[in-house]
Give the backbone structure.
Amino acid sequence: MSSARTWFVTGASRGLGALWTEAVLDRGDQVVATARDVAVLEPLAGRHGGRLLPLALDVTDRAAVDAAVHAAEQRFGGVDVLVNNAGHMLVGAVEEVGAEQALAQMDVNYFGALWTTRAVLPGMRERRSGRILQVSSIGGLVAYPALGIYQATKWALEAMSQSLAAEVEAYGIHVTLIEPIMFPTGLAEASPQSQPNPAYAHAREALFAGSGSGFAPGDPAATSAALLAVADAPNPPLRVLFGTGGLDALRTEFAGRLAGLEQWDHLSRLAQGSTTGK
């Protein structure tokens, strides 16, 4: 796809979002880059001029999200590719996480993506084209101890996005869930953390001992080429893993789920009652 497009990228000031924003600009597209601290984007704006619109944005503020998308449409005529990248990773056992922390995690990782998605959809439907790239995680497909609240937000994003993909396919809009595996971007270090409870020391030990098993840290810069390839694909996937080792982990995860359901299928049949169905 050679014609320039307009991208709307949340969480563009650091990590993968910053790398992707620069890669998109380098190839000649236009970007609306959002971040809580827009000053971080000033050097990028200086290099790319009018093709970059930096906006301060808290994705949990629905009115601000609507205003930012409106500004993007006014500046560039519409949003062709939405990248929902803003988020943080709360580490902590379910009982350790505070109520406000849990609400904030869901507000940013799930509702933030929901508000931006809803804001761009009317324009995409009108143009009958668009790409929505949702940054999930390998933790959106499996769940590890001491990451339950973080991963719950990603599981919610997965379900919403899969339903959305079926709803908007008729309008030429493609939805893809990007599942990064392990990349040293400083996400955990920059994220709020729960207060450790000694009762769950074993859960944290299991997280750090087991969740990375088989996962080699990937090169964050290399993800830019993969992102552009997904955005350019005529028929992009609903889900794509970024990094290696994930397929083996998922084979184990899904085989275990099916085995457990089959083992207890006698209770499924008991709950069905007396019917003629199988």
About this structure: The chain has a mean pLDDT of 93. Strands lie at 6-9, 30-35, 52-56, 81-84, 130-135, 173-180, 239-242. The first strand starts at residue 6 and ends at 9. Residues 25 and 31 are 7 Å apart (CA to CA).
